[in-house]
Amino acid sequence: MTTVRITRNALTRSTLAALSGLLAGFASLAVAELVSAAVRPEASPVTAVGGAAIDRTPAGVKDWAIRNFGEDDKLVLQLGILVTLALFALAVGLLALRYRRAGSAAVLVFGVVGTSAAVSRPDSSGLVDGLPSLLGSVVGAVLLYVLIGRLTGPHRDTGGEPDGEQADEQEHEAGWDRRGFVIAATAAAAASTAAGAVGRALNSRSSQNAVASREAVALPKPASPARPIPAGAQLRVRGISPFTTPNDSFYRVDTALVVPKVDANSWRLRVHGKGVRRDLEFTYQDLLQRPLIEREITLCCVSNEVGGPYIGHARWIGVRLADLLKEAGVKPPSRGGEADQIIARSVDGMTLGTPVEDVMDGRDAMLAVGMNGEPLPFVNGFPVRMLVPGLYGYVSACKWIEDIELTTFDDYDAYWVKREWARKAPIKTQSRIDTPKPFGRPEAGTVMVAGVAWAQHRGIEKVEIRVDDGPWRPAQLAEQGTVDTWRQWSYPWKATPGGHTLTVRATDRTGELQTEKRTKTVPDGASGWHSVVVTVD
């Protein structure tokens, strides 16, 4: 009976020790959240560690995450971080039961990792960004030391090594402070919950000014409005993507673990660097008061696989970027300019490198302030984002932009170039079948095959469909909006029973036929023909 009681006692204390580790980890995160409200929300440990993890993840792994988790990739990363922290906390609690001081000190690893991640981020404010993680881990270490003390009694406070079964018998005989543990654990849980709630509330309040500034924006009428979308640009085919993508359905691919919420009233944009005769700085109101252009432009992410969803179309309004560069005295390389690359910097430290020549060759590159008739949504870059028709987003579409530096490709590699992506990335000619869906089961008879094709800044000239290994047949094209927009197409297929493979390819207006060669997204975008397999009933 004595042995059974000792075993049960040891099991109970081990369980409570593990719980103590969890409480210490929870307290660390809660206090860090509270302190981050006084520093900045991005300095909280989960955000900082998540951002650092994204920065250090190889390009192939990032591409795999986007392919498998889509826009939920950041949620998966956050959950993974929390699960890892929980497992570590459990282990630290069990360690502290045997080695109280060493186990409690191990909580400081939270602080070391979080502090290192926070101060190493591209947008770091310096050592102050490490305070949330550091202070949070100190509180967690002290809490674990106190809780374990309630489980072990005074003879274990020295951190000495236990003496096997004899120590268990001594602990059983001496007992442990159950009531004290319950009171301390309950108080710690309540205080941590309160601290975390207050921290989240304060961090949320810091974004309220940004929300209010967006709600106060009234976009001016553009000096150069977009041409009306042709009536025939949208086909009446069920299952085809809408010509204009609603804002809440527009794809999102970026590295921001938490969407930046920037107050438009305090936002500033600086233009400087090589070939700039005088540095320029603009406020949000400065941009709104300039002549604005409005254009229909389709954007595409370089992580979009063949037939993938990371492409969308919107009507954008903004300031022509070339005009700002000319005011600063910038010339393109073809006219003797010193700089051949624009480095666009986001408020979260992201850097994108764009060819100066492409921005200043006459295309509608802009600093966008509006999207589909409203101020940019926060997730799409409010207050200002950059976009350049014809280039993949990672070299042109800087969201939450705050700095433009003129430099050269030889002198500076932007964020994605350092991670194995190409320096220059014009969008490839691509096409996609929207309907019927893969593994669909249409009925025999006339089946409308339809989808979209794109070759931004070149336009689509022809789309062809092939059934199984048969001949290529021309699809019917919808009206082309502009060369910077995607184009819908359809093909009435006389479907016969059985399994079939439908394949599409496009030709752009330069005469370039979409290549059959399959390539991955790294380093400059996927290529290949899109196919779907269906079974006709």
Q: What does this entry show, briefly?
A:
This protein has 537 residues and is an alpha+beta fold. Helix content is 36%, strand content 21%.
Give the tags.
12 helices, 21% strand, alpha+beta, five-stranded antiparallel sheet, five-stranded mixed sheet, 537 residues
Q: Topology, pairings included?
A:
Blueprint: H1 2-39, H2 45-56, H3 59-69, H4 73-98, H5 100-106, H6 108-120, H7 131-152, H8 164-174, H9 178-215, E1 268-273, E2 280-283, H10 284-288, E3 293-300, E4 311-320, H11 321-327, E5 341-346, E6 351-355, H12 356-359, E7 366-371, E8 374-375, E9 385-387, E10 401-407, E11 430-435, E12 445-454, E13 460-467, E14 473-474, E15 476-477, E16 487-495, E17 498-508, E18 530-536
Parallel strand pairs: 1-10
Antiparallel strand pairs: 1-2, 3-4, 4-7, 5-6, 5-10, 7-8, 7-9, 11-12, 12-16, 13-14, 13-17, 15-16, 17-18
Helix pairs in contact: 1-4, 1-7, 1-9, 2-4, 2-6, 4-5, 5-7, 6-7, 7-9
